[in-house]
Amino acid sequence: MAGYLYKRKKHGKELAVWWAKYYVAGRPRRESMGTTKRTVAQRVLDDRVGRAARGEPVLAHADKVRWEEAEADLKQHYEAHGSRNLSEYSYRVAHLTAFFRGRKLATIGPQDVTGYIVKRQGEQAASGTIRRELGTLTRMFRLAYENSKLLRLPVVRKPKEGTPREGFFEPDQYDAVRRKLAPDLQAAVAIAYTYGWRMQSEVLTLERRQLDLEAGTLRLDPGSTKNDEGRVIYLTPEVKALLGAQLERIRAVERKAGRVIPFLFPYLSGPTRLGERRRDFRKAWATACTGAGVPGRYRHDFRRTAVRNMEQAGVPRSVAMKLTGHKTESVYRRYAIVSDADLADAARRLSGHTSGHTGSERASLTSVTS
Q: How many CB atoms lie within 10 A of CB 288?
């Protein structure tokens, strides 16, 4: 007999919930069917017996795994493999946890995902942000499935990717904002503006050992970037001068603090954080943008600006992608923003080109186009 249903007794009284006994690889297994209805319990038992007969994994408790357990598993996975920035993960999963807290993982389906999307849209979350959060949800489902804690992978449909932001800095806007920042932050934004490096995860995390003024290079170590690939850039004279001045400022702080400071962008003042790696400068940035007459700008706009500048300067796309760290050309193209000034300049170039036709050529062109 492959398996059978029975009811347990407690204090001499028969309990209402059905239990089952069946065999997996020749070993007996007892499990509550979680229902008082025999027909439902029989279907569950038949599923278990069928899986055992086909050699498929029999997940006795998969229907009991809750959100909190799956979330903890994913966090542990990222900690073990180092494949995700944990602070970034914590931010994304916080919104998911607020919505799915307490839910059994097996009960989360497409309708629940749609409900989550509607909620986040109501909170004015961007489509790209929602897509990345749902990417975390998908990874959680897949890990639970791999760990035999989920019977099947639910369908997760993401909202359409929104149009890319078109914000970028014209040279005069960049100069105006930079002049409003402290000297050390001027050096930081110069790197982002020139090479398109990510401010939070690539520029502010730099250490002095990654700068070689004699060779005129700045490098990012493999594994420290979003695509895990290392990067080396050669410094322009302007950026080299700014970073040279930054090193002098750090040496002055070292003499004051009496210790070695390994960071390229540490806090240069303050009784408690002096010499520690600078984490952010959002308030100083917002104040500088407002003072420069361009409020509401993002530091990530420097990434688009760098791509646009490289395109205009004729830097080969393969080289530009190495400098900015874009791994695929499709993503790179999303940053290749064209401004109204670019379009106007193209019209002037075309005008100069077409005005070189002779009278007979212009007449010929007119007859063709009419």
A: 23
For the chain, give the secondary structure using H, E and C: CCEEEEEEEECCEEEEEEEEEEEECCEEEEEECCCCCHHHHHHHHHHHHHHHHHCCCCCCCHHHCEHHHHHHHHHHHHHHHCCCCHHHHHHHHHHHHHHHCCCEHHHCCHHHHHHHHHHHHHCCCCHHHHHHHHHHHHHHHHHHHHCCCCCCCCCCCCCCCCCCCCCCCCHHHHHHHHHCCCHHHHHHHHHHHHHCCCHHHHHCCCEHHHEECCCCEEEECCCCCCCCCCEEEECCHHHHHHHHHHHHHHHHHHHHHCCCCCECCECCCCCCCCCCECCCCHHHHHHHHHHCCCCCCCCCHHHHHHHHHHHHHCCCHHHHHHHHCCCCHHHHHHHCCCCHHHHHHHHHHHHHHHCCCCHHHHHHHHHHHC
Q: Are 238 and 253 members of one domain?
A: yes
Q: Is the pLDDT of residue 25 over 90?
A: no
Based on the fold, state whether residues 225 and 189 are members of the same structural domain.
yes
Task: Tell me the two tokens of residue 244.
Answer: 């040279």
Q: Which residues of 98-123 are buried (b: 16+ CB within 10 A; e: fewer)?
A: ebbeeeebbebeeebbeebbeebeee
Task: Please tell me whether the overall predicted TM-score, pTM, comes out greater than 0.90 for this model.
Answer: no
Burial 161-183 (b: 16+ CB within 10 A, else e): eeeebeebbeeebbebbbebbee
22, 120: one domain: no
Same domain, 201 and 239: yes
The position carrying tokens 């994994």 is 57
Number of domains into which the chain is organized: 3
Backbone phi, then psi, for 4, in 5-degree steps?
-155, 160
Residue 37 lies in a domain: yes
132 and 205 fall within a common domain:
no
Going by C-alpha positions, the residue among 88, 299, 353, 92 that lies closest to residue 188 is 299
pLDDT in tens, 312-328: 888 888 888 888 887 77
The whole-number pLDDT of residue 314 equals 86
Print the domain residue range for 314: 171-335
User: Is 27 found in the same domain as 141?
Assistant: no
